Amino acid sequence: MRTFGVEEELLIVDPVTGEPLALADALLSAPAHDGAAHDDAAHAAQDGTEPGPTLEEIDGPDTGLSHELKLEQIETQTRPCRSYAELLHQIRRGRGLASHAARRHGARIAALATSPVDAALHTTPDPRYAIMLERFGITAHEQLTCGFHVHTSIESPEEGVMVLDRIRDKLAVFTAMSANSPYWRGLATGFESYRTQAWNRWPSSGPSAIFGSLAAYRRVVRRLIETGVLLDEGMVYFDARLSRHVPTVEVRVADVCLRAEDAALIAVLVRALVETSVREYHAGIEPAAVPTALLRMASWQASNFGLRTELLDFGTFRPEPAADVVWSLVEYLEPVLAEQGEFDLVQTGVAAILSRGNGAIEQRGVAGRWSESNGSAPDAAGLAAVVEHAVQITMRSERDESDTKPQPVLTWVRQDWREAPG
After folding, report:
1. What residues does 66 pair with on adjacent strands?
2. Is 375 exposed, middle or buried (0-12, 13-18, 19+ CB in 10 A)?
3. pLDDT at 70
C-alpha cells in the first residue's frame, strides 16, 4: 500500500468579526507552548471544538506548520501515512497545533478556501514573495486562497509521469467534492469553488497535456522557466505534478476541506487513483487522449456548480448528475479500494458528502439561516457567522452520525469521450 500525506492551508481569523488576521509570523515564531495548552480543553468545551494537542505533541521535533504566501494563512503538513485513520489523526493534529498557536494570540483557525469577510491582506516577508508581488500584481496581491494538496508515493519519477498522464481526466471530481469557497472577501461569487477561479489566474496553473515520458515532462518544465515568466520550478502550478522535494505525485485541485474526515476521504480516493493508474500503465492501457481544453471545461464546471447540479462525466465529457459522476469514480476505483480494505469506508464517506453537501453548501446554509433570522441578505455580520461556524467544524473531533445518511451506490456506464454523440 502506497504511503500518502497532505498539506492543508488554513485561514487565521478573528473569532468575533471573522476577518483574516496577519498573524502567521507570530504563530510560527512563538515558543512551542506557554501554558496555554492546559486551557485548550476548557476552550473546546466552551465552543464545541476538539481539545488542542498535548504538550508531548507540541514539544515534538516537527510541528508541521509553515508560512504561505499571505500572513493571514498557515500551512500544516502531515507525515507519510498508510491508512485513513492514521491520516485523519495527522490532519486533526495539524489543525490542533495551528489552533493552539492561534489561540495564544486571541485568534482562531478556519478551514475555508477563501475568506468570506473582506480585510486588508499582507504578503509574507520573503524575497521570493516580494518578486512575485511585483511581477504578478493583483494576482499575487489578492491570492489569499487555501488549497488541499495530496501527496502519494511513487517508485520513480518515470512512474510518476505515467500517473500524471492517466489521472488528468478525473481530477475535476475532487474539485467538486472539496468545493469550499462560495464567498470572496464579502461577495457571494456564484461559484462553489471560487478558489479555483482565483488560483487559475497564475500563468502555469490548470490541467496539463499528456507528457508521455519523464524527459518530456522535464522539457516542458524547463521551457516554462526559460520563458522568464515563472520565477522557478516551484511556480509550475499544474493540477498535478511531480513533487520537487519528495518522491510523490502531488494532486493540487482541491479546496481545503471544512471537515477533516472529508479531507482524509479525498486523500484515500487520490491514492487509489494513483495506484489504479500505475496498474493501467503496466497493463499497457494508454491514457485517454482528452484535449486539455475539455479538461478546462470540466474544471470550470466543477468550480462553478460543485455538487449542486451536474458535472462533466470523465468518460464522455457530457454533463451528468454530479452524484452519478462521483459514484462513477468510486466504481472505477473499486478494485483497488476493495483490495486495500477501503471500499466500505469510501462508500460511507461519499454518501455522507452527497447527503449533507460539501463545504460550499454548508457555508451557504449558514448564511441562509442567518438571512432568515435577520430578514436580509448576508452582510458582514452574516458572513462572520459563516466563519464562526467554520471555526467550530474545522476543529470538530468526531463525525456527527446524524450527518451520515446511507445512499445507494449508483452505477454509471461511461463511454469514452471520443464516442460521445455529436
Report:
1. 75
2. exposed
3. 93
